[in-house]
Every structure is written in C-alpha cells, then in structure tokens.
Amino acid sequence: MDLEPIEPQAAVELYLADREREVASSTLRSHRSRLQFFVKWCEEEGITNLNELTGRDLNEYRIWRRNDGDLAPASENCQMDTLRVFLRWLESIEGVPKDFHENVWSPAIDRTDEARDVMLDPEDAEEVLSYLETYYYASLDHVLLSLLWQTMMRRGAAHGLDVRDYHREDQCLEILHRPETDTPIKNGQRGERLIALTGWQCSLLDDWLQDRRPDVADEHGRRPLLATAQGRIATSTIGKKCYQWTRPCVYSNDCPHDRDPDDCEAMDTGHASKCPSSVSSHPFRRGSITHHLNEEIPETAVGDRANVSQDVLERHYDQRTKREKMEQRRQYLDRL
Q: Residue 94: is its pLDDT beyond 80?
C-alpha cells in the first residue's frame, strides 16, 4: 500500500474533524488534549511525516509520556488507548501501514490495586453527568453519581443517607454514623459532618424527592435518600452503577479500546467492570479530590469535605503530578 505523507498536527486535526459528529464535544476535547502530547513528542523527535513511524517509536513515546507526565498506570493506559484509536483511523487514510495500531501497547490495570492509581478523569466525569442530566435527569443513577462526584463522599456514606439528612433550607447534607441501624460510616463519629451543596445540587435533590424517589422505608423504618423499589440502595449496587455508566460507549458512543460492542464482554449484564475504562465508586472520590486540588481549593477544605486527613490525602488521594504541583506553587513565588 502506498502511503500518503501527513504531518502529525495535520493528522490530529483531520481525525478530530472526522469524528466531530460521532462523539460528544467533551470526548473530542479529551482526545485533542491527549493527542497534543503525541504531536509535541513528534516535534521534539523531528518526526514530520507519520508514514515514518515505527513500532519502536511508539514504545519510546509511551515511556516519554509516562515519565514526562509522571503518569499512573491507569492514566498511561488511557493515553495509549486514545493513540491506538487515532492510528487505526490513520490507517484508513493511508497515513500509516495497515494494522500499525496493533503496535501500541497499554499497561494492564489491576482492579485489585485501585487504592493508589485509578481515578475518574474530570473530563469523563463531566461527560457522564452531562449524559445523565440530558437523558436520565433526577433518576436514582443521576442523583447518586452526582453526589459521589460533587461531594467526594464514600459509598458507605451515600448508602447511609436518609431523606431527613438533606437540609434544603441550609443547602447541605448531614453525614451521620448509625451502626445500630446498619449504616456505619468510616471513621465513626469522627466522620460525621455537614457537606454544603450548591443551589443546582439542591434543585436536583428536590426533583428526585418530589417526582422520582420510591416511597419506601428500610427494615428499620428509616426513609433512605437513595432508594430503589426494594428499599435502601445496597453498597454493591452503588459500585455496579459506577461501572455501568463509566463505559465510554454508553455516554459518548465511543470506544477508546477499539472494541466491537456486539462482541465486547463488558456489554453483558453484570459485566460492566470488564471495560478497561469503567471505574468503581472509589475512583469517583479520588478523581474528585484531585480535581478540586487542581482547581486550587485549599487542601484543608478538600480534606474536611471528603473526611480525610492531610497525610492520607497526600499519600492515597492526591493524584496531581509533580509538574502540576510545581505550577500551582509558582503563583506564590512573589511572596517569598
């Protein structure tokens, strides 16, 4: 096959233009952001024609991207999956040889090792919540995922919420430790707190309570805020719903892993966790915490809202890279 010469930046722009009508705008922004690192690397390596790319080049880029961005395995996986999809598209316009995308290697993600690395990216969270707001507004899933992302609460805290814990006048949620009625929270009474809500978050809860919430109580006679027709939502169900809605094909009509939906095992009922991009509830919390820190919310405010000590926050939740932390500190140089 004769290849047609094409520059890296031009190829990325053509790719984004071609996919504009297929995927959501937030997906395009995510792909543009990830592929710009590839364009930058090509510039540094003097690669002006993608016809010349080799499998060794792709491996060198992966290592460069990992080290330059101080990436965790989950983030590296996402970066390389996007590059693979881009290269497969490039094959269709004769920019690289047929099947060249198979040279892209992504690190395997160990689901049992989520505690430090895996988090939901802010762009993906925005896209998931936007999709739910558009097509499933004020549904249980919409309310649940919105609360997990916006409040940074653990799923145990979400599970234990009652209707009476929502204080509309004060625009807040009250998190309480109630082990005697089967809803303990991590850190016990030390984990009890009030979480402020925005006006929009209150409107969402108001609409859920008024129009969508089943009129049920649990076995202790309490009225759960997050309820199904059977009663209080189970903690395992919370995890399943997170996996279900964070599959990119569900909310963006896009598969960064180049899978056929008809053959993908993650599309089977109860197997959403087999999608490499789907995440459980804890990455919601970790991603939200990191997002708030990147937005320069003080660490003390983030820690208090999420109920996590500063030491644990830094060791287990703060996924900002060394470069991101440096750039945030730069604003204070004039005061030193």
A: yes
